[in-house]
Amino acid sequence: MPDGAVMRNAEESRYKYLGVLEVDGIKHDQMKDQVKKEYTRRVRNILKSKLNGGNIISAINSRAVSVVRYGAGIIKWTKNELEEMDRKTRKLMTMYGAQHPKADVDRLYLKRYDGGRDLLGVEDCVQAEVNSLDKYLCASEENMLKEVNISSILENKKHGQSREDIQKRNLRKRVYGEDIDSSCRVCGAAEETVAHIVSECQKLAQKEYKEVRHDNVAKVIHWKLCEKWGFEKSDKWYTHKPEKVLESNECKILWDLPIQTDKTLEHNRPDITVIEKKSKKCLLIDPACPFDTRIERKEEEKCNNYCDLKYEIARMWRMKEVEVIPVFVGALGSVTKDFEKWIQKLDLGIAAEKLQKPCLLGTARIIRKVLDIK
Description:
Elements: E1 15-17, E2 20-22, H1 28-48, H2 53-70, H3 79-95, H4 105-109, H5 122-139, H6 143-151, H7 157-165, H8 169-174, H9 194-200, H10 202-229, E3 245-247, E4 251-255, E5 272-276, E6 281-285, H11 295-305, H12 307-316, E7 321-325, H13 339-346, H14 352-371
C-alpha cells in the first residue's frame, strides 16, 4: 500500500455472504463442518429439555433441521454425509431416551397420520430443497437467472439428473413437447414409460426382472420355509442360497425345478414346490412382480395356468390336496386384495412389507441402471 502497509492475502481469509463462507468460491468443507456442529448442538440441547416426545420431534424439525435446510442446493453435501447426520440424530435420541434402541427406523420418519413419529430426515430435506431450487430456476423468467440456469445448473449432476435423466422419455415428449426419440433406451421396441421400464422391457426380463427382483422375493419365502421345516439356512434372507432340493422325513422342498408329468404341460415349473409328506399336501408357490395395475389379472391367470399341473400332481404323487399360492407384489409395491389370504395359507408369519422391500429395492436398482444409459 502507499503508506507501506501490507494487505493480508485474500486466500488466507474469508467472508460471509448470506451466512455462507466464501473467498473466490464457496468454502464447502468449512461450511459443512460448521453446519454439522451447530446441527448436533441444537439436537443435543433439544433432547436435554423436558419436552414430551411429540414436541421433541417438532423442535428438531424446526430448530435443528433448518440449519441444514438453509444451505441446501448451495453447499455440496454427499449422500454419505447426510446419512451420517441422520444416524447421529438417531444415536443421540437413543442416548437421551427419546428412541428405543430396537425401534423401527422407518417408522421414525413416517408421517404421524400413517402411524409414524414424523421426524424430518436431513437427507430427505436437502434433496427436497435441491429439487425445489431446480424447479424455481427452470421456471424463472428473470434474464440473469435464465443465463445462469443453462450454464451452471444443468452442469451440476444432481440437477442434470432431475431435469434430463429421471424424467422418462415418453413424458418429456408427450407432456413437455420435447423433440426427442421417446422409445425405450434399452430395447427401442416400445415407448419409454414407467410401466415399460420396471416390468415390460424384454431385454430386462431374464436378468434384471428375474434375478434382481423376482428371485429375491421368492428367496424370502424359501428362507422362511427352511426356518419352518428345520432346514439349514443363513442368518439373513439376502445371503440365503436356496438348494434345488431339500428333503426330510416330514417335508420336501423344490426350488425352481420342472415337474415331470405323463402329460406334456406348458406350465410345469413353479418357483417353489412344497410337499408335506404326513398330510399329503402339496403347495405350488409362485411369486411374481408385474406392474401394479395388472396384479389382480395376473394373479388370476397364474391360478388358471397351473390347473392341469395340480391334477397331474394329485394323481401321480397321490396327494390329498394340491394348492397354488400366487404371491403377487407389484413392481411399485402394491399387493392384491387376496394377498393376506395367500400368506396365511403359507403359515410362515411373513408380513407384507417383508416381500415388498426386496421387490422395491429390485425396482430401484433396475431404474438406476436404465437411467444410466444415455
